[in-house]
């Protein structure tokens, strides 16, 4: 089959000053996006690394104190931003950046960028993903809204068909040409992203797979858009109607439905008020061991069991510090309570996000946004994973301190300072970024919807080709 | 005048016969209805949460007072081990005491950042940075939110006005002249006894008034539906309509300017949409990037670390280090205090009734010391945050959409100025409560019911007019500027054939 129409379309675009101007504008915006968002990432990460180092130094050089006292003193974890957040920041501006690590409580990540900003923050972050998700589709619309209407208006559509080319071929090759333009931009974006990643520290090993995934996702999306643009142009009576229809669809898909989907999720699966949530946790805390309430019946039973276990009749004869073990029992109990309550909130938020995932069968933009965040490591699941890793780190740290207290002092001794090595040999927190497979696991719904959209839009273009008249 | 009436009459006919415009107007009304429903749902939840907190606070205080009255035994010992007449019992009285930033009815029309910022703060005689669970800053009082929903944003009436209304204006104005050229009717219009640019200007002014009429009515009806009163809040209604006039004026001015360039309808639409994309997505995102790079809130870490370091071992500080500065600030309470701070001292204070008074004093002085020791860091942190909030103000002159959003937010009490005012009011209220608690504690007399009832109550001052009007000038200048440039463009081509 000849590709003459495909080539002619590309040649036409390369000679069209309007197209070149728009492409130049998009190119300039992409360049700006990379410079701005990568600078933000570098500044933020430098600051985070420096603060983390300072706090770790403070921990290892803290004043002499009892091991459990050190657990109360605690430390801070500054949440790292995934490297690819410069490509797609996802939710990073809306989640906390500092987690307090201390005994007895599971602290959530607090202090988000958005919380420190005025209403303008809600207009979004400037990034390559913003350009790829919102502006490239507009570019495709501006380039292709008159792909068929201009041929019809100029009388060249009929001429094309008299050359023995089918309507189907004309539409396919035009859609192919617009896809190629978008593909070219996409390749240059991913190429630039790849270069930045290679030159950055801690790039990880699976970034090529992530970039490949992003290429497939955005490529499929642009395929759908090119096909829909050409199809709408073919069905429209004139260029104005075609442009209005496509812009309406863009607005609905890129601005209206994403808000609507998120809002519906909130209404269907409401979250508890913070006060109620904290009260429920406090209530459950009161049902278990409280290490700092020595007179409670539960604590007495715990100590009594210890006496039986070590076959002694008084705590003074215990070879361990019962207070240290009591503190650890308190920690384990509280961790189980908070895991239960925080887990319920995580699940509810995932249900809210599930509404957007189901609606991606209506709006492919939702698939692209979700998959782009997952592949960049900036979706909600990654945030939960990060907070769980911090919680695991905290549990290990506090267990180490309580165990030290239990094994290096006698019951009632809250003052003997721990050896310095206990603090200096504490490992610092290190975030282990999940693999790309983990990021995409349970993403079948959104992957399926994007592929479904690609298949259905292609089938639809075939139907359009049969339906329109040559004149 | 008669010609102008004819032009407007003809324009009315054109508009009423355009089915696409009816469709767009219908969509606007539908989005208005949904935006009202959504805004009301979000604000109702917030309102309920705040009401529950206030109810809990009231019931705690009522139960406390009734215990005081019922027993006629003010020396009754509470579950926490304190006598009702003991200064430390005031902490039980204030355990649920809250200062709340209650949303107005307008907040349902523009949620702003109210879903991100904390809307209440617990206040007692303790330091504002230390509650029963340890070190705390105001962010800890923020509600649990789904960050992916925050990214998507709120579909409130302000969103419709700021994002979608310009599209309706573009649809109304992109072909105000080009359509005549394309239909071949422009030469006929040129025969009218008024310049073409007058014709375009009158048409756009007429359409502007239609749009303003529609959105003003929708706003007022919406306000009534969400429980507000346009009569009681006439000033806010006037402010709202004023801002809308300026913002819609900016977009109609752009249409006037673009029409002067005499392009095709498609080119006009493209140019206007490019401005829309720039104004709604690109410029705000760039300004956000500037803000985060220029104003990092690193001094919060300094504050948090300072709080940790200060609280670590502060209780065990010898009395002169904590009581000394306290007596310097409150000389009326000055007296000789024992130097009790070791663990053994703590045991004695907790069990020896004679020392419990000193224990209460040490408790409040500890909190005073904590606030005092970190006040410098807190001030630096607060100043940094205010600078960050205000960073966007520098760019108002090129950022009409965000300026409009902020203007509506300030009018509705959902803006950062209102939030700052709330934070200032909380700090002030906290000082009142702390001073009052200190007075009760150091008076060393058994507390009476009247002492409890006289505890200061929180009141949020109304927003100042300067705050709500601050965005008017940039919007006015932007709006006037595009009309002026449009007029100059028309002037340059007065001799151009139609």
Gyration radius of chain B, in Å: 31 Å
Order of helices and strands of chain A: HHHEEHHHHHHHHHHHHHH
Largest sheet of chain B: 2 strands, antiparallel
Order of helices and strands of chain B: HHHEEEEHHHHHHHHHHHHHHHH
Largest sheet of chain A: 2 strands, antiparallel
Alpha-beta classification of chain A: mainly alpha
Strand content of chain A: under 5%
How far is the N terminus from the C terminus of chain A? 23 Å
Number of helices in the DSSP assignment of chain A = 17
Radius of gyration of chain A: 30 Å
Mean pLDDT of chain B: 86
Low-pLDDT parts of chain A are none
Q: Order of strands across the biggest sheet of chain A?
A: 1-2
Quaternary organisation: heterodimer
* Fraction in helix of chain A: 55-70%
Shape of chain A: elongated
Helical run tally of chain B: 19
Shape of chain B: elongated
User: Into which percentage range does the β-strand content of chain B fall?
Assistant: under 5%
What's the short version?
With 471 residues, chain A is an all-alpha fold. Chain A is built from 17 helices and 2 strands.
Verbal overview:
The complex is a heterodimer of chains A (471) and B (498). Chain A has 471 residues and is mostly helical. Chain A contains 17 helices and 2 strands. Helix content of chain A is 69%, strand content 2%. Chain A has a two-stranded antiparallel sheet. In chain A, helix 4 runs parallel beside helix 8. Chain A is elongated, with a radius of gyration of 30 Å. The two termini of chain A are 23 Å apart. Chain B is built from 19 helices and 4 strands. Chain B has a two-stranded antiparallel sheet. In chain B, a hairpin with a 2-residue loop joins strand 3 (130-131) and strand 4 (134-135). In chain B, helix 14 (353-391) packs antiparallel against helix 16 (416-443). The longest helix of chain B has 53 residues, at 19-71. Chain B is elongated, with a radius of gyration of 31 Å.
What are the SSEs and their pairings?
The complex is a heterodimer of chains A (about 475) and B (about 500).
Chain A: H1 4-15, H2 17-60, H3 67-73, E1 75-78, E2 98-101, H4 128-144, H5 149-154, H6 156-162, H7 167-199, H8 207-235, H9 239-268, H10 274-286, H11 297-310, H12 322-359, H13 364-376, H14 380-408, H15 420-424, H16 436-440, H17 444-467
Antiparallel strand pairs in A: 1-2
Helix pairs in contact in A: 1-7, 2-4, 2-7, 3-14, 4-7, 4-8, 4-9, 7-8, 7-17, 8-9, 8-13, 8-17, 9-12, 10-12, 12-14, 13-17
Chain B: H1 2-16, H2 19-71, H3 89-93, E1 98-100, E2 120-122, E3 130-131, E4 134-135, H4 147-152, H5 157-173, H6 178-183, H7 186-190, H8 196-225, H9 234-260, H10 265-294, H11 299-311, H12 319-329, H13 343-351, H14 353-391, H15 400-412, H16 416-443, H17 449-453, H18 465-469, H19 472-492
Antiparallel strand pairs in B: 1-2, 3-4
Helix pairs in contact in B: 1-8, 2-5, 5-8, 5-9, 5-10, 5-15, 8-9, 9-15, 9-19, 11-14, 12-14, 13-14, 14-16, 15-19
